[in-house]
Amino acid sequence: MKIPLSLQIALRFSYGQRRNGMLSLVSVISIIGIALGVVVLIIGLSAMNGFERELNNRILSVLPHGEIEPVYPPFVNWKKILKYIEKVPGILSATPYVNFTSLVEYNNKFKIIQIKGIDPDIEMRLSTLSQYIQDNSLKYFHTGQQKIIVGKGLADFLKINSGDWLTVMIPERNQQMKLKHISLQVSGILTLNCKLDHSFAIVPLLDAQCYLQLGEDISGISIKVNNIFKANKIVRDAGRITNTYVKTSSWISTYGYIYHDIQMIRTIMYLAMILVIGIACFNIISTLVIAVKDKNTDIAILRTFGARDELIYTIFIWYGTLIGITGIIFGAVLGVLIAVNLTTLVNRLERILGYHFLSDDIYFIDFLPTELNWMDVTYVLTTAILLTILISFYTAKHITYIYPTKVLSGR
């Protein structure tokens, strides 16, 4: 493939021996500025992708996408209603649950938590919950054995391990001032590495009904949908077919703000970093101005040999673009390497500094996730290259008109 003459000359200008040290310095600054902008943008977008992945895989794969609860308990005919709900388009599964608030105690340490009664067999088939429970304890989580699975944050606070017995205190039915004390054995630790770990525990559904003296009554029906972004509509559709007074809610009302924050930060970061790359690209203007002054004798000689204005413009468009592309390539390689290993690098930095950047009792996860999306990398590189070409074209068009006779005569 034949290389255009303008590109050959631009390559010689770029990588040949320079007479002007200032030109080299400004070129290096331009390359570093563009590279840093690309690096930061790739890392930032990868971190946002990681947060979104963890929200989907770690939170929404464990918690229900929607819930239906009776306005006036008890939940009459819920077994019949459950069959109708499962047939609603968009619903993958619907399962009963019992929710209640409890005070737990171990070695004179107390904590108020939310306990959820679930059907272990259904959760094993339809949820990824078992992946986050140590030693696959959900497989041996059976009714009538006084078992409880607690979050890791709660276990750390109470300093308990699997096999320990703790006391659960719940109000007596119809006697709110009297507490029922129930001894339960910890059969597993739920490790989601998120805020949920500090105030969440699960027990078998039938046991929860027994503790609360509910009989066959339940707190509500939890729903998994095939499109999490349409959860509100699907849950409302399911609520309508119950033909009773129910209240509906979805993950959007509890964790939706996290998703919207991630998208907003992604957009702001992209715009901000594009501005940073744009400002770095403006250094190309200085580089081209100095380059034209440095190469004016060469340009004058080219003109005396009959070089047209278009050739001169194209030479310096290539010259500026080559500088930009050099910075973009360095930035892309470094950004991809850091983005792929971002979680490991941040963990090592935390160990060195002795400081934890994300605490799971404040944020919804306790580590900095990352997920490199090659489409994001493509968008970043395309935008940076277009900015470089645009600025190079505009600058070269306005600074390359040189009078050969004046230059060669020394006037």
Structure report:
With 411 residues, the protein is α+β, with helices and mostly antiparallel strands. The chain has 2 domains: 5-58 and 258-409, no CATH class; 66-254, no CATH class. The chain contains 14 helices and 9 strands. It has helices spanning 5-15, 21-59, 78-86, 120-126, 152-158, 205-211, 231-240, 251-254, 256-294, 296-304, 309-340, 342-353, 374-399, 404-409, and strands at residues 66-70, 91-106, 109-118, 147-151, 165-172, 175-190, 200-204, 220-225, 246-250. The protein has a 6-stranded mixed beta barrel with strand order 2-3-7-4-6-5, surrounded by 4 helices. A hairpin with a 2-residue loop joins strand 2 and strand 3 (109-118). Helix 9 packs parallel to helix 13 and helix 11 runs antiparallel to helix 13. The radius of gyration is 32 Å and the shape is elongated. Residues 402-409 have low confidence and may be disordered.
